[in-house]
Design brief:
By secondary structure, this protein is α/β, with parallel strands linked by helices. It folds into 3 domains: 2-101, Thiamin diphosphate (ThDP)-binding fold, Pyr/PP domains (Rossmann fold); 123-263, 3-Layer(aba) Sandwich (Rossmann fold); 289-481, Thiamin diphosphate (ThDP)-binding fold, Pyr/PP domains (Rossmann fold, 3-Layer(aba) Sandwich). Helices cover 36% and strands 17% of the residues. The protein contains 18 helices and 17 strands. It has helices at residues 10-24, 38-42, 58-64, 78-92, 123-139, 149-153, 157-167, 199-207, 256-262, 289-299, 312-317, 339-350, 362-368, 371-377, 393-398, 416-419, 436-448, 467-481; strands at 2-6, 29-35, 70-72, 96-101, 143-147, 171-174, 188-192, 210-214, 235-239, 243-246, 249-252, 305-308, 327-329, 356-361, 383-388, 429-433, 454-459. It has a 7-stranded mixed beta sheet with strand order 7-6-5-8-9-10-11, sandwiched between helices. It has a 6-stranded parallel beta sheet with strand order 13-12-14-15-17-16, sandwiched between helices. Strands 1-2-4-3 form a 4-stranded parallel beta sheet, sandwiched between helices. Bound molecules: thiamine diphosphate and magnesium ion.
Length: 482
C-alpha cells in the first residue's frame, strides 16, 4: 500500500485527481489528512482552507466517491477504525481516507494487535463455478487465456504462470496489464488490442470459442475503442480477484487464486504456429517514432521497470516485447497526463535496486515537472526520456492536427536537472538527440553510468506517431462523433 499525507482542503483537492486515478486503476493508497480541531468544527468557525461556510465534512464527502472506506479518528475509535480502513484498502486494492483532527493527533491510544483476516473462498460456490467452467471449456474447441491488470494488483503472477504451465493454454495480455505474464514464455502470444492486434493475436482470437478472462476490464483504450476481434458466439468466463462470472451469472466470494488452483488439473493441447524471429534491421538516420521504440527495445534489461506516459509513449511502448521480469507501468484507463513522473518516484522509492526507465511526452512533463526536484532530492537515478515533439501529438491524432490548442510552449528540457539543483550537486547525464546513433550513444552511457540520473531529450516530428496510435486515433475520433 502507498500512503499520501495532505493538507486539509487545499492539499487534498489538489490530490484528488491522483487518488481518483488510483481508484480507477485499483491501486491501494491510504490518504491521510490533518483536519481542524474538533472544537473549531463544532463551533463552525470560518477558518482558512474551508469554503467559509462552517462546513468541515465537504472534502471528506468528496473523497467518498474515490475511496472504499473513510474514517475520522478520535481517541475512542482509532484502534478499530485504523484497522477497518486498512483492511478495506488491502482487500479491494483501492484508496481509503483517514482524517485526523488536530486535537486528536497526539492522543495516546492502546494498540490492539489484530490477527490478519485474509479473505476466504466460499467452498460450495467455488465448486459450482469450477464445475461450470470445466463444462464450458470441455465443450469448446479452442480456448485461450486473456490476462490483465488485476492479476498484477493482487500479486497473483506466479499463480497465473503455474496455471498456464499446467494447462498449456495460450495467453494474451491487455495493455493495462502488460507484463502480467513473462513475454518471453512460449505460451505468450502477444498484447490484445481489439481489431488493432497483431496478426498472431488476431489469428488466435478469431478461432477461440471459449476465453478465460483473468483479471480483465475491457476499456476503450485496450480494445481499439470497443472494436473486438473474436469469434461469433464465443463464450467468455471472467475470473476476478474476489468474484467470477459466466455470462450473466455471478459467483460471489470466490478468490482468483483458489479458482486458478482448482482449475489446474485441466490440460489442453494448443499448437503454437511456428514463428520466425523478426529480421534485425539495422537502424540509422533521423529518429522516427517507429525507430525510436525499436532502439529502446534493445536497451531494456531483465527486471527493469518500464513506465510509459499516456501519449505516443504508451502506445509505442506496447509494441516492445518485454524481457523477463520487467514491470510495465501506465495509466490507460484514468489517463491523467503527468501521472508517470510521480509513478516513477514511487516505483523507484519502493525498490531502489531496479532501474526505472520513463518515456514521457513534453506536454505531460510540463504538468508535473516539479517532481523532478523530488526525484533529485531522493537521489533516484532513473533514465528519463522526454519526447519533444512540439506538443500534444496523441491529441493531434484524434482531433485538430493543426489546431493551436495542441501546441505548447517550448522548454529546454535537457537543462531541467540543473534548474532543480542548487545545492545537491547531483551529477546528472543530459542529452539532446534526434538521430538513431545519438540516441544509442546516450543510452549506452546512461546504462553504464547507472548511479546517475539521465535525462534524454528526444526530438521527433509533431505529426509522427506509433502505427497503433495513428489507427486508434481514427477509431477514437469516430467514437467521439458516434
Ligand atoms: C490531466 C489531463 N489533461 C488533459 C488530458 C488530455 N490529453 C491526453 S494526452 C494529451 C497530450 C499529451 O501530450 P504529450 O505528453 O506531449 O504526448 P505526445 O506528444 O508524445 O503524444 C492531453 C492533453 C489528459 N489526458 N489528462
Ligand atoms: Mg508531445
Amino acid at each position: 500500500m502507498g500512503a499520501l499525507l495532505t493538507t486539509f482542503g487545499v492539499g487534498e483537492l489538489s490530490a484528488i485527481n491522483g487518488v481518483a486515478g488510483s481508484y480507477a486503476e485499483s491501486v491501494p493508497v491510504v490518504k491521510i489528512v490533518g483536519m481542524p480541531s474538533r472544537s473549531v468544527a463544532y463551533k463552525r468557525k470560518f477558518v482558512h482552507h474551508t469554503l467559509g461556510d462552517g462546513e468541515f465534512l465537504k472534502f471528506y464527502n468528496m473523497y467518498r466517491e474515490v475511496s472504499v472506506a473513510q474514517t475520522i479518528l478520535d481517541k475512542q475509535n482509532a484502534p478499530s477504525e485504523i484497522d477497518r480502513v486498512l483492511r478495506a484498502c488491502f482487500l479491494h486494492k483501492k484508496p481509503v481516507y483517514i482524517g485526523i483532527p488536530a486535537d486528536v493527533v497526539h492522543s495516546p491510544i492502546e494498540i490492539v494487535l489484530c490477527s490478519p483476516m485474509p479473505p476466504k473462498s466460499d467452498r460450495k460456490i467455488l465448486q459450482t463455478f469450477v464445475d461450470a467452467v470445466k463444462e464450458c471449456l470441455q465443450k469448446s474447441k479452442s480456448q485461450a487465456v486473456v490476462a490483465d491488470y488485476e492479476v498484477n494488483r493482487y500479486h497473483l503472477n506466479q499463480e497465473l504462470k503455474k496455471f498456464i504451465e499446467i494447462t498449456h493454454l495460450p495467453l494474451v495480455s491487455l495493455s493495462m496489464g502488460k507484463g502480467v505474464f513473462d513475454e518471453t514464455h512460449p505460451n505468450f502470444v502477444g498484447v490484445y488490442s481489439g481489431i488493432l492486434s497483431d496478426s498472431k493475436v488476431s489469428a488466435l482470437m478469431k478461432q477461440v470459442d471459449c476465453a478465460l478472462m483473468i483479471g480483465v476490464k475491457l476499456t476503450d483504450s485496450l480494445t481499439a475503442g470497443f472494436n473486438y476481434v473474436r469469434k461469433q458466439g464465443h463464450q467468455t468466463i471472467e475470473i476476478h480477484p474476489l468474484y467470477s462470472q459466466i455470462g450473466e451469472r455471478i459467483y460471489n466470494d470466490i478468490l482468483m487464486q483458489d479458482v486458478l488452483n482448482a482449475l489446474a488439473d485441466l490440460k489442453f493441447t494448443y499448437h503454437f504456429p511456428k514463428t520466425t524471429p523478426p529480421k534485425k534491421n539495422h537502424l540509422s538516420g533521423k529518429l522516427t517514432q517507429d525507430k525510436f521504440f525499436k532502439v529502446i527495445q534493445g536497451y531494456l534489461r531483465p527486471d527493469d521497470v518500464l513506465i510509459a506516459e499516456q501519449g505516443t509513449s504508451f502506445f509505442g511502448a506496447l509494441s516492445i516485447p518485454l524481457p523477463s521480469g520487467v514491470s510495465f507501468i501506465g495509466q490507460p484507463l484514468w489517463g491523467s497526463i503527468g501521472y508517470t513522473l510521480g509513478a516513477l518516484l514511487g516505483s523507484a522509492l519502493a525498490n531502489r535496486d531496479r532501474r526505472n526507465i520513463l518515456l514521457i511526452g513534453d506536454g505531460s512533463l510540463q504538468l508535473v515537472v516539479q517532481e523532478l526536484s523530488t526525484i533529485l532530492r531522493e537521489n533516484i537515478t532513473p533514465i528519463i526520456i522526454v519526447i519533444n515533439n512540439d506538443g500534444y501529438t496523441v491529441e493531434r491524432c484524434i482531433h485538430g492536427a493543426q489546431r493551436q490548442y495542441n501546441d505548447i510552449n517550448m522548454w529546454h528540457y535537457s537543462k531541467l536537472p540543473s534548474v532543480f539543483d542548487v545545492q545537491l550537486a547531483r551529477e546528472c547525464l543530459s542529452f539532446q538527440v534526434s538521430s538513431v546513433s545519438a540516441l544509442q550513444e546516450a543510452l549506452d552511457i546512461s546504462r553504464t553510468e547507472d548511479s546517475k540520473l539521465a535525462l534524454i531529450e528526444v526530438f521527433m516530428d509533431k505529426h509522427d506517431a506509433p502505427a497503433l496510435l495513428k489507427k486508434l486515433g481514427a477509431l477514437f475520433s469516430a467514437q467521439n462523433n458516434a
